[in-house]
Automatic annotation (TrEMBL):
Molecular functions per Gene Ontology: hydrolase activity
UniProt cross-references to InterPro entries, sorted A to Z: HAD-like_sf, HAD-SF_hydro_IA, HAD_sf
Keyword set, alphabetical order: Hydrolase
Top-level taxon of origin: Bacteria
Alphabetized PANTHER family for the sequence: HALOACID DEHALOGENASE-LIKE HYDROLASE (HAD) SUPERFAMILY PROTEIN, PTHR46649
Protein's recorded name: HAD family hydrolase
Length: 243
Protein backbone atom coordinates (compact mmCIF):
# COMPACT_ATOMS: atom_id res chain seq x y z
CA UNK A 1 0.00 0.00 0.00
CA UNK A 2 1.27 3.45 -0.90
CA UNK A 3 -1.47 5.49 0.77
CA UNK A 4 -4.20 5.27 3.40
CA UNK A 5 -7.40 7.29 3.44
CA UNK A 6 -9.20 7.84 6.73
CA UNK A 7 -12.68 8.95 7.64
CA UNK A 8 -12.85 11.63 10.36
CA UNK A 9 -15.73 11.16 12.81
CA UNK A 10 -15.92 7.72 14.38
CA UNK A 11 -12.61 6.71 12.80
CA UNK A 12 -9.80 9.08 13.83
CA UNK A 13 -11.82 11.26 16.21
CA UNK A 14 -14.90 10.92 18.40
CA UNK A 15 -17.17 13.82 19.31
CA UNK A 16 -17.89 14.56 22.98
CA UNK A 17 -20.98 13.17 24.71
CA UNK A 18 -24.30 14.91 24.16
CA UNK A 19 -24.43 15.95 27.81
CA UNK A 20 -20.95 17.50 27.66
CA UNK A 21 -21.93 19.25 24.41
CA UNK A 22 -25.04 20.71 26.02
CA UNK A 23 -23.19 21.78 29.18
CA UNK A 24 -20.63 23.66 27.09
CA UNK A 25 -23.31 25.48 25.11
CA UNK A 26 -25.25 26.40 28.26
CA UNK A 27 -22.10 27.81 29.83
CA UNK A 28 -21.35 29.87 26.72
CA UNK A 29 -24.90 31.24 26.67
CA UNK A 30 -24.89 31.92 30.42
CA UNK A 31 -27.97 29.75 30.90
CA UNK A 32 -28.43 27.43 33.86
CA UNK A 33 -30.45 24.22 34.02
CA UNK A 34 -31.02 21.94 36.97
CA UNK A 35 -29.32 18.56 36.73
CA UNK A 36 -32.55 16.68 36.10
CA UNK A 37 -33.67 19.06 33.36
CA UNK A 38 -30.19 19.06 31.84
CA UNK A 39 -30.11 15.25 31.71
CA UNK A 40 -33.59 15.11 30.16
CA UNK A 41 -32.71 17.75 27.58
CA UNK A 42 -29.48 15.97 26.65
CA UNK A 43 -31.41 12.72 26.25
CA UNK A 44 -33.94 14.42 23.97
CA UNK A 45 -31.19 15.98 21.83
CA UNK A 46 -29.47 12.60 21.55
CA UNK A 47 -32.68 10.87 20.51
CA UNK A 48 -33.08 13.50 17.77
CA UNK A 49 -29.51 12.92 16.56
CA UNK A 50 -28.90 16.65 16.89
CA UNK A 51 -25.18 16.26 17.62
CA UNK A 52 -23.27 15.76 14.38
CA UNK A 53 -20.90 12.85 14.85
CA UNK A 54 -23.18 11.27 17.44
CA UNK A 55 -25.99 8.80 16.90
CA UNK A 56 -28.39 8.96 13.95
CA UNK A 57 -31.82 10.59 14.41
CA UNK A 58 -34.64 8.38 15.68
CA UNK A 59 -36.91 10.14 13.16
CA UNK A 60 -36.69 13.02 10.71
CA UNK A 61 -39.03 16.00 10.82
CA UNK A 62 -40.41 16.97 7.42
CA UNK A 63 -38.29 20.12 7.03
CA UNK A 64 -35.11 18.18 7.82
CA UNK A 65 -35.96 15.11 5.74
CA UNK A 66 -35.75 17.21 2.56
CA UNK A 67 -32.07 18.06 3.18
CA UNK A 68 -30.86 15.12 5.25
CA UNK A 69 -29.59 13.01 2.38
CA UNK A 70 -27.51 15.84 0.94
CA UNK A 71 -26.55 17.65 4.15
CA UNK A 72 -22.83 17.11 3.65
CA UNK A 73 -22.74 18.80 0.24
CA UNK A 74 -22.55 22.32 1.66
CA UNK A 75 -22.00 24.20 4.91
CA UNK A 76 -25.47 25.72 4.63
CA UNK A 77 -27.24 22.37 4.24
CA UNK A 78 -25.27 20.87 7.11
CA UNK A 79 -26.20 23.66 9.50
CA UNK A 80 -29.84 23.59 8.38
CA UNK A 81 -30.07 19.84 8.97
CA UNK A 82 -28.60 19.78 12.47
CA UNK A 83 -30.17 22.98 13.79
CA UNK A 84 -33.44 21.68 12.36
CA UNK A 85 -33.05 18.57 14.52
CA UNK A 86 -32.14 20.50 17.65
CA UNK A 87 -35.18 22.76 17.18
CA UNK A 88 -37.38 19.74 17.76
CA UNK A 89 -36.23 19.93 21.39
CA UNK A 90 -37.44 22.75 23.62
CA UNK A 91 -34.47 24.72 24.92
CA UNK A 92 -34.53 27.54 27.49
CA UNK A 93 -33.02 30.06 25.06
CA UNK A 94 -33.52 30.07 21.29
CA UNK A 95 -29.89 31.13 20.79
CA UNK A 96 -28.80 27.72 22.00
CA UNK A 97 -29.62 26.01 18.70
CA UNK A 98 -26.90 27.94 16.87
CA UNK A 99 -24.56 27.86 19.85
CA UNK A 100 -24.87 24.08 19.99
CA UNK A 101 -24.12 23.78 16.29
CA UNK A 102 -21.10 26.07 16.55
CA UNK A 103 -19.78 24.19 19.59
CA UNK A 104 -19.67 20.86 17.75
CA UNK A 105 -17.15 22.41 15.35
CA UNK A 106 -14.78 23.45 18.14
CA UNK A 107 -11.58 21.37 18.50
CA UNK A 108 -12.38 20.96 22.20
CA UNK A 109 -15.52 19.02 21.26
CA UNK A 110 -13.44 16.24 19.69
CA UNK A 111 -11.00 13.70 21.07
CA UNK A 112 -8.70 11.51 18.95
CA UNK A 113 -8.93 7.77 19.41
CA UNK A 114 -6.09 6.53 21.64
CA UNK A 115 -4.11 5.01 18.76
CA UNK A 116 -4.71 7.72 16.14
CA UNK A 117 -1.40 9.53 16.70
CA UNK A 118 0.58 6.28 16.83
CA UNK A 119 -0.90 4.93 13.61
CA UNK A 120 -0.64 8.19 11.68
CA UNK A 121 2.91 8.75 12.92
CA UNK A 122 3.97 5.25 11.92
CA UNK A 123 2.50 5.69 8.45
CA UNK A 124 4.49 8.90 8.07
CA UNK A 125 7.67 7.09 9.16
CA UNK A 126 7.03 4.40 6.55
CA UNK A 127 6.55 6.99 3.82
CA UNK A 128 2.88 6.09 3.33
CA UNK A 129 0.67 8.94 2.13
CA UNK A 130 -2.28 9.86 4.35
CA UNK A 131 -5.54 11.50 3.32
CA UNK A 132 -8.68 12.33 5.26
CA UNK A 133 -11.91 11.91 3.30
CA UNK A 134 -14.92 13.08 5.24
CA UNK A 135 -18.61 13.74 4.74
CA UNK A 136 -18.79 16.98 6.70
CA UNK A 137 -20.17 20.49 6.46
CA UNK A 138 -17.31 22.44 8.07
CA UNK A 139 -13.52 22.69 8.09
CA UNK A 140 -12.07 19.95 10.30
CA UNK A 141 -8.44 20.99 9.79
CA UNK A 142 -8.36 23.05 13.02
CA UNK A 143 -9.35 19.92 14.97
CA UNK A 144 -6.32 18.08 13.61
CA UNK A 145 -4.04 21.06 14.28
CA UNK A 146 -5.26 21.51 17.84
CA UNK A 147 -4.67 17.85 18.66
CA UNK A 148 -1.29 17.67 16.94
CA UNK A 149 -2.30 15.32 14.12
CA UNK A 150 -2.22 17.75 11.19
CA UNK A 151 1.50 17.14 10.44
CA UNK A 152 0.66 13.52 9.59
CA UNK A 153 -2.04 14.36 7.03
CA UNK A 154 -1.03 15.06 3.43
CA UNK A 155 -4.46 16.00 2.08
CA UNK A 156 -8.00 16.70 3.26
CA UNK A 157 -10.92 15.96 0.94
CA UNK A 158 -14.07 17.31 2.54
CA UNK A 159 -17.47 16.78 0.97
CA UNK A 160 -18.76 20.32 1.48
CA UNK A 161 -15.73 21.76 -0.34
CA UNK A 162 -16.43 19.61 -3.41
CA UNK A 163 -20.23 19.40 -3.41
CA UNK A 164 -19.90 15.62 -3.48
CA UNK A 165 -20.33 13.17 -0.63
CA UNK A 166 -19.37 9.58 0.03
CA UNK A 167 -20.04 6.93 -1.27
CA UNK A 168 -19.60 8.80 -4.56
CA UNK A 169 -16.25 7.47 -5.84
CA UNK A 170 -15.32 10.91 -7.17
CA UNK A 171 -14.46 12.04 -3.64
CA UNK A 172 -12.03 9.14 -3.15
CA UNK A 173 -10.59 9.74 -6.61
CA UNK A 174 -9.74 13.34 -5.65
CA UNK A 175 -7.86 12.04 -2.60
CA UNK A 176 -5.94 9.41 -4.57
CA UNK A 177 -4.96 12.00 -7.16
CA UNK A 178 -3.77 14.41 -4.47
CA UNK A 179 -1.57 11.64 -3.07
CA UNK A 180 -0.43 10.53 -6.56
CA UNK A 181 -1.55 7.03 -5.63
CA UNK A 182 -3.04 4.25 -7.72
CA UNK A 183 -6.38 3.41 -6.05
CA UNK A 184 -5.42 -0.27 -6.16
CA UNK A 185 -2.59 0.57 -3.77
CA UNK A 186 -4.78 2.51 -1.36
CA UNK A 187 -6.82 1.41 1.67
CA UNK A 188 -9.83 3.40 2.90
CA UNK A 189 -10.44 3.19 6.65
CA UNK A 190 -13.85 4.17 8.01
CA UNK A 191 -16.77 3.28 10.24
CA UNK A 192 -19.65 3.50 7.74
CA UNK A 193 -19.99 0.54 5.40
CA UNK A 194 -22.11 2.37 2.86
CA UNK A 195 -20.29 5.72 2.77
CA UNK A 196 -16.71 4.54 3.22
CA UNK A 197 -17.32 1.38 1.22
CA UNK A 198 -17.72 3.56 -1.86
CA UNK A 199 -13.94 3.54 -2.22
CA UNK A 200 -14.13 -0.08 -3.37
CA UNK A 201 -15.63 1.12 -6.67
CA UNK A 202 -12.18 2.51 -7.51
CA UNK A 203 -10.41 -0.70 -6.54
CA UNK A 204 -9.30 0.52 -3.11
CA UNK A 205 -9.10 -1.87 -0.21
CA UNK A 206 -11.61 -1.01 2.52
CA UNK A 207 -11.12 -1.58 6.24
CA UNK A 208 -13.87 -0.89 8.76
CA UNK A 209 -13.61 0.13 12.41
CA UNK A 210 -16.32 0.30 15.04
CA UNK A 211 -17.85 3.70 15.84
CA UNK A 212 -17.44 3.59 19.62
CA UNK A 213 -16.57 6.06 22.38
CA UNK A 214 -12.81 6.64 22.40
CA UNK A 215 -12.26 4.86 25.72
CA UNK A 216 -13.97 1.74 24.38
CA UNK A 217 -11.78 1.48 21.27
CA UNK A 218 -8.16 1.86 22.35
CA UNK A 219 -6.52 0.04 19.45
CA UNK A 220 -9.04 -0.25 16.63
CA UNK A 221 -6.76 1.45 14.10
CA UNK A 222 -3.60 -0.60 14.69
CA UNK A 223 -4.61 -3.40 12.26
CA UNK A 224 -4.21 -0.82 9.49
CA UNK A 225 -0.45 -0.99 10.00
CA UNK A 226 -0.52 -4.72 9.29
CA UNK A 227 -2.55 -4.13 6.14
CA UNK A 228 -0.08 -1.57 4.86
CA UNK A 229 2.91 -3.69 5.75
CA UNK A 230 1.72 -7.04 4.42
CA UNK A 231 -1.05 -6.55 1.88
CA UNK A 232 0.24 -7.50 -1.61
CA UNK A 233 -0.47 -5.38 -4.65
CA UNK A 234 -3.32 -6.78 -6.71
CA UNK A 235 -3.62 -6.41 -10.47
CA UNK A 236 -7.35 -7.03 -10.57
CA UNK A 237 -9.81 -4.19 -10.10
CA UNK A 238 -12.00 -5.93 -7.56
CA UNK A 239 -12.23 -4.58 -3.99
CA UNK A 240 -10.28 -6.01 -1.11
CA UNK A 241 -12.10 -5.66 2.18
CA UNK A 242 -11.11 -6.22 5.77
CA UNK A 243 -12.83 -6.04 9.19
Amino acid sequence: MTAVLFDFSGTLFRVESTESWLRGALAEAGVELGETELAETAQALEAMGALAGGIDPSWLPEDVASVWGVRDKSAELHRAAYTGLSRQVQLPDDRLHDILYDRHMAPAAWVPYPDSAEVLGTLRERGVGVGVVSNVGWDIRPVFREHGLDPYVDTYVLSYEHGVQKPDPRLFAVACAALDADPRDVVMVGDNRRADGGAAALGCAVHFVDHLPAAQRPDGLRPVLDLVGTAPRSNDSGPRTGK
